[in-house]
Amino acid sequence: MATRNDLCNAIRALAMDAVQKANSGHPGMPMGMAEIAEVLWRSHLRHHPGNPAWANRDRFVMSNGHGSMLIYALLHLTGYDLPIDELKNFRQLHSRTPGHPEQGLTAGVETTTGPLGQGVSNAVGMAIAERVLASQFNRPGFDIIDHRTYVFLGDGCMMEGISHEACALAGTLGLNKLIALYDDNGISIDSEKGKIESWFTDDTPKRFEAYGWNVIRGVDGHDSAAIDHAIQAAQAQTARPSLICCRTIIAKGAPKKANTGAAHGAPLGADEIAATRANIGWNHAPFEIPADVRAAWDQRARGAALEADWNRRFEDYAKAFPAEAVELRRRMAGELPADWSAVRQAVIDKVISQAETIATRKASQNAIEALAPRLPELIGGSADLAGSNLTMWSGSKPVAKTGGGNYLFFGVREFGMCAIANGMALHAGLIPYAATFLVFSDYARNALRMAALMKQRVICVFTHDSVGLGEDGPTHQPIEHASALRIIPNMDVWRPCDTTETAIAWLAAIERRDGPSSLLLSRQNLPFQKRDSTALAGIAKGGYVLAEATGGKPALILIATGSEVSLAVAAQEALAAQGVAARVVSMPSSNVFDRQDRAYRAAVLPAGVPRIAIEAGVSDFWRKYVGLDGAVIGIDRFGESAPATEVFKLLGFTVDNVVKHARALVAA
Ligand SMILES: Cc1ncc(C[n+]2csc(CCOP(=O)(O)OP(=O)(O)O)c2C)c(N)n1
Ligand SMILES: [Mg+2]
To answer: Residues within 5 Å of ion ligand 2 by Cβ?
Structure first.
């Protein structure tokens, strides 16, 4: 009969052998967290290896993603679809065992981790999603959504600032079903060069107590009974998230390298591996797991029973609450409501009939107001700028210390906010939006990148999108941000020019199922643009002819986005008066435009016609559309604190300047 110790040693052996075979990777963390993982995954985690998509499974996040061999070993041993050959192929091209765990690639990996601090923040989002969905769908006698979110995290996650942002909010919201297990091993990478006391001396338990967490201190992370006891105590919490501080030894079992920085991120080496085998009493060949150990690890039957029990309860729920059951299925599948096409048409019709000249941030709020009642999965918030970002609507109900809601006061925590939004999207059942000033998208940038990498439907509302915000000055005026967001692969950026483009940008962001969208919105009013049906249909293509040159034969094309579209239209008129026929192309989303077929793109931007791009941001990005012979009216410096009209004038965003560039180009 396999002992608990054998089960833990199976993890140790798989980790050290896979890292050795790959000749790269991180053996120390899996070897140090083996006992914690065994207790959690065999005694507590409610999951079903046969169905990683079971809606009410507990979520498990390994925030210290460098220890990826731990989760691969767990998935393999408990019976997920991850055969031993995949572990032998650790870190190799096209394996399902990449260097860091990747959601969507490996069944059972709930989120992509490795960028330290973000996993635990995703977990906060997952716990919020659970709370919100439970409040929406549970009925007396039917706790149909009722699961926990467990996180492993290490010193690195603790040092990262984002852990403060997300964990402070988790404490404020009292997310009692969030349970974090801290791998307190006193080692991080630079332990190879010095002692961690030189860079990390936080009193972590006090820190989390200050956030309002239930902190369980001083657990021996190699004492299974103590770990089990601590997890039970955490599960009993009704109002606070829990942090279980587990004192561990990195690479436990390795005679020379245990408790050293050397064990963090390099193969142990053949000699040390042999010595470890002898030391822990593991006499099996690499990747060989004895049958009794395998049987004891297998969670397929237990998981199937857990899910079957839930399925039975769900059937009863569906009988008592048929509409709710259908709705929950739809929500978890990420599908839009059946009447969606009518909803989208009504939204578009309304903005066109109203023809309002308002700021696009206001147009965005109107879009939320129109869509949210029909889209209960929409949940959003702002990083303490609700009144500026205009993210609240008449039905906004803030999530508080207890109960659900559809609005989040994220506080001034841009990075945490976006990582939390990623977690909510990953949980499924919700479409999250997050908001701040565009200039602070930088604060959140790596979470935006992770949303794009993980193909998550997250919507970012970035207002105050240019120097046009005026008096707040250069610290608040984005310059490089629109372009910087556009170059993140799989991020769709929209910079709409009026209410119609704003509504269509929102619809596109909601309808998109394979990635995030950023909506860049103006502080200042922008005039409504009239369009024929062709132009209207062109908006969803990302770029289109908004105003054709008189006579239909353009001598020049003006490409503009957002607030600069009306400038291009005014310049077109001025040029027409001087006999220069210019076409205006509005390009609300270059990313979407680039995905159109060649014929469409060539029809909008025919070859051989000189082009000028106009955007209140860095010019480089637009070279790909105007070529070296074209012109860009952009901004390659920081802004100025002054009223918007004066700043625009100073920086050349005037009809005269566009006309000057146009005439020079046509004459050339
Ligand atoms: C944001 C971020 N910065 C830096 C790194 C590189 N890195 C990977 S692991 C690590 C140290 C982690 O220490 P700890 O979490 O204590 O892991 P342990 O060595 O205990 O396994 C660093 C700096 C990273 N993965 N993410
Ligand atoms: Mg550590």
So the answer is: 154-155, 185, 187-188
